[in-house]
Write a structure and sequence with these properties.
alpha/beta; binds adenosine-5'-triphosphate; single chain; binds magnesium ion; Rossmann fold
Length: about 325
């Protein structure tokens, strides 16, 4: 068995990401790996899939299997408080109030939750080396996840820009502070510069992990239907652009023959899309999961499809 340290499941809404990631985590754990299942989808359903309560701190589900649902709002709050704390050390009390006002606005602004989730997820990835053999990520529908995974690239560039600006400002400051020893010292240990540099380093470490094909793989989950195939085409292109490794695709809810004559036409339609999926993405590998006659909730149900996901190991 050869699995990656970080395995992501993503794709269009409702295609079966949570089901597939939970079943795969269960499969790995039962094969003897120490596994952490992580949900980064703000609308969590990992708990439904495993049929048990999970929360924003790591819980043990069974031998070798742990899970966590990252709470975006809570993480955003912690993140902003952390930034505020840092700022208090750096700036004079007079502007703390103004900055806090701005931070309160930033806290509810778009992007804050993503940054916070991202921070949490880099922490988990870096921690995995020692605590777990594998981390399985259940992600939010495509758009959200692509933004999250491409954040290091985009923000990395932005951070470089901020660093360059701060450096320039400090150069001017240095000239002004020529005769003031106190100020010179402050400049030498500029906390804003070191804060920015730390964030930049974090993004670059995240990028290294995400684009390391030995460590990380991304599985698209889709259904054999038009819109899912179209969305997968676009998402695969983005992943390639950002050099994130793609593993076998999972085609979920394939209608088995026993669905009878009523579904005959639909089965034909699925067969056409399956052929298209094979033609376009066959090089990554394709794993099919049949439509079951009930929802897949709880371990007993997950066990039914876990063995089918064994094909994801070492498939590259
Ligand atoms: N092969 C299948 N057979 C029967 N039911 C399934 C199958 N795959 C998924 N389901 C059911 O479909 C529903 C949606 O699946 P799931 O939650 O895994 O999708 P998702 O891609 O994670 O959705 P979201 O985008 O909302 O996160 C769940 O109730 C699940 O139990
Ligand atoms: Mg889900």
């Amino acid at each position: 068995m050869s699995y990656k340290r970080y395995t992501f499941f993503g794709g269009k809404g409702g295609t079966g990401k949570t089901t597939s990631s939970s079943a795969y985590a269960l499969h790995l754990a039962r094969s003897g790996a120490r596994v952490l299942a992580v949900s980064t989808d703000p609308a969590h359903s990992l708990a439904d899939a495993f049929g048990t309560k999970i929360g924003s701190s790591i819980v043990k589900l069974e031998d070798n299997l742990w899970a966590i649902e990252v709470d975006a709002a809570l993480e955003a709050k912690k993140y902003m408080e952390g930034v505020q704390e840092q700022m208090r050390k750096v700036v004079s009390p007079a502007i703390v109030e103004e900055i806090e006002k701005q931070l309160r606005v930033a806290y509810v602004s778009p992007g804050a939750e993503e940054s916070a989730i991202f921070d949490c997820f880099v922490d988990l990835m870096e921690k995995a080396g020692s605590d777990y053999d594998a981390i399985v990520f259940d992600t939010a529908p495509t758009g959200h996840t692509l933004r999250l995974l491409t954040l290091p690239e985009v923000l990395g560039a932005w951070m470089e820009h901020l660093l360059a600006k701060r450096n320039k400002a400090m150069e001017l400051f240095k000239i002004a502070a020529h005769y003031e020893h106190d100020l010179q010292e402050k400049i030498a240990n500029d906390p804003v510069l070191s804060l920015l540099a730390r964030r930049r380093d974090r993004f670059s470490r995240a990028r290294d992990l995400l684009t390391n094909k030995e460590l990380t793989t991304f599985h698209f989950v889709l259904n054999a239907e038009k819109l899912a195939v179209l969305e997968t085409e676009r998402a695969v292109a983005t992943m390639n652009e950002f050099a994130i490794g793609i593993g076998p695709l999972i085609v979920n809810r394939v209608l088995p023959p026993e669905t009878g004559p009523f579904f005959a036409h639909r089965r034909e339609q699925q067969a056409q899309y399956l052929a298209q999926i094979e033609a376009e993405f066959g090089a990554y590998g394709v794993v099919k999961i049949p439509m079951l006659d009930t929802d897949i909730e709880g371990k007993a149900e997950l066990e039914k499809i876990a063995p089918m996901l064994a094909a994801l190991d070492g498939a590259d």
